[in-house]
Each structure stands twice: as structure tokens, then as C-alpha cells.
């Protein structure tokens, strides 16, 4: 029978895929800054010896065979038991010197997620030379602000500290790099306490290669936002869909109505049928939104009770 996981005050959790050039320094830096923390490296099918290097530097190394950062995070969140989870990439782009600043609000009970903000101090724009990454960050941030009414400074950062209740009640849906966006949206939608700590981002050192595909993974992030928008805000989502159908129905139907009022005839039956169908779809979408909104509210109440009981048990 497996032994229960040891409860840590702080667990540094590092998802890794082929990070041999940088993982030793990352483990050493966080061991220096947080000597009391347990450092976990989850190897995601690396072929360059990442796991062996991390193990030699004293990290607790585990393997996750399902490819993708979201899959790695799902397993880390299930396996590890800690009061504060400090998630960081293994590419040596985030400063370990900021680790205590990120963990402090979580350990003090003042925040449930602390975001390592690379953008507000201009560090990311100066260091990152990859095309469209800044634009992608701004686009995702604008979409979340419009949908949820909350202005994140840095939605896509891979450096963040999280409380135990946050991690243990977070349903990981994504498989890949969408995980950061999913974490951010979940925190806003469930009204977790969020704090921002500016950090000095640095670009990858020579020999370290990013696994992020700007276009492919960017489209996945946008699709994830749309999916979570539908799931978390169904009434708003389907109201927008209904509005589109309604505008289409009005555009198609107004000439038919105008002609009928003028002549008493409806000569364009196909257009009239199209207009009626579009208006029906608008009404159906609106009804769907109301039904799913009621379901979402019930699910939210059940989730709040689960969080409450988990906090009470601790």
C-alpha cells in the first residue's frame, strides 16, 4: 500500500521537457532561496537527460508520460501535498530571488494565487525577442478583462504561487500550454484572492529552446478562453450568440416586412423562411443560456461548499 504524501510548507513544482541546459541552475537557485522547500521536477518524456541532472542536484524527480504541460500540472497537483505551491518553468527565465515574495502572501493567508508579473516593469518586452508573444499576451489579457471584468497584469506567466485549497479544488481541463490561462480564468471566476508581484524576467540562455509554438499554441489558448467562457458564463455567451442570430434575422426579415406592409404580399418566401429560422435560433440560444446559467449556479454552490468543507477539515 503506497505511503501518504508528506505535507510540505512550500513545494517548488517544476514541469520539464528537455531542459538539460538549465535545470541544474534552476534547482540550485531555488534550493538556495528556499532551503526549507521540497523541490519537485516532473519530467515529461525528456530525451536529453533532464531527469538525471535534476536528481543529481537533489530534486525529487517524477515522470509524467502524458505529453503536455497541462497534463504535468494535473498530476503534480494530485500528487503533492503542501501549504504553498510555487510553480516555475525549468528554463531559467524566472528569478529565484523573488520566490519568497511570491510565497509570503499565500503562507500568510492573504492570497490564494500570487502571479509573477513579467510585464508591468517592462522586463518581458526587453528580454523576449520572439515575434507576437507580447501581442498574444495583450490579446488574452484584453479578452479576460472584457469577459470577466478583471485586469490581469500577466495572464500567461509560468511563475506563480498557489494555496492548497486553490490547487486541490482546481479542475485541470487543458493538456498543454493553455494551463496558465486556465489557472488565471479559474482564479477570477471563482473569486479567489489574487495578488501580483513584479519579477525580472530574463530570456532563455543560449542552448535552451522554447517548446511553445506561437501560432498553434496561441490558437489553443484562445479556444480555451472560449470554452471556459461558455462553461463559466453561459448566459453571457449564449446571449451574444443570440444577438448575432437576431441581427441576421432582422437584416433578412426587414425587407420582407417592409414589402409586405407596402403591398400586402410576401413574394420572397426563401428569405422570409431564413429570417424566421434565424429568429428562432436566437430565441433557442437565449433559452439555452438561461438553462445553463441555472446549472452553472448550482455547480458553483456545490463547489463553494466543497472548498468550505476542505478548509474546515484542515
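Sequence proposed for the structure above (314 residues):
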Amino acid at each position: 500500500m503506497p505511503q501518504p504524501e508528506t505535507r510540505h510548507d512550500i513545494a517548488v513544482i517544476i514541469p520539464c521537457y528537455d531542459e538539460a541546459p538549465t535545470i541544474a541552475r534552476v534547482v540550485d537557485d531555488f534550493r538556495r532561496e528556499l532551503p526549507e522547500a521540497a523541490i519537485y521536477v516532473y519530467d515529461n518524456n525528456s530525451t536529453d537527460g533532464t531527469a538525471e541532472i535534476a536528481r543529481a542536484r537533489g530534486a525529487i524527480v517524477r515522470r509524467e508520460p502524458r505529453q503536455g504541460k497541462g497534463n504535468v500540472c494535473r498530476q503534480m497537483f494530485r500528487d503533492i501535498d503542501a501549504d504553498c505551491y510555487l510553480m516555475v518553468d525549468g528554463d531559467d527565465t524566472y528569478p529565484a530571488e523573488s520566490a519568497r515574495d511570491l510565497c509570503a502572501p499565500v503562507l500568510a493567508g492573504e492570497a490564494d494565487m500570487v502571479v509573477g508579473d513579467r510585464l508591468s516593469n517592462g522586463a518581458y518586452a526587453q528580454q523576449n525577442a520572439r515575434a507576437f508573444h507580447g501581442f498574444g499576451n495583450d490579446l488574452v489579457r484584453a479578452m479576460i478583462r472584457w469577459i470577466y471584468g478583471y485586469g490581469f497584469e500577466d495572464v500567461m506567466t509560468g511563475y506563480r504561487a498557489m494555496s492548497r485549497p486553490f490547487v486541490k479544488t482546481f479542475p485541470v481541463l487543458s493538456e498543454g500550454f493553455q494551463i496558465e490561462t486556465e489557472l488565471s480564468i479559474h482564479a477570477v471566476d471563482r473569486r479567489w484572492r489574487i495578488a501580483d508581484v513584479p519579477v525580472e524576467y530574463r530570456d532563455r540562455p543560449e542552448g535552451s529552446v522554447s517548446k511553445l509554438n506561437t501560432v498553434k499554441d496561441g490558437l489553443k489558448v484562445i479556444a480555451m478562453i472560449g470554452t471556459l467562457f461558455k462553461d463559466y458564463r453561459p448566459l453571457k455567451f449564449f446571449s451574444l450568440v443570440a444577438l448575432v442570430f437576431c441581427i441576421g434575422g432582422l437584416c433578412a426579415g426587414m425587407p420582407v416586412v417592409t414589402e409586405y406592409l407596402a403591398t400586402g404580399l410576401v413574394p420572397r418566401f426563401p428569405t422570409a423562411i431564413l429570417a424566421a429560422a434565424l429568429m428562432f435560433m436566437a430565441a433557442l440560444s437565449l433559452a439555452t443560456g438561461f438553462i445553463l446559467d441555472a446549472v452553472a449556479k448550482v455547480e458553483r454552490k456545490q463547489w463553494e461548499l466543497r472548498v468550505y468543507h476542505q478548509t474546515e477539515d484542515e
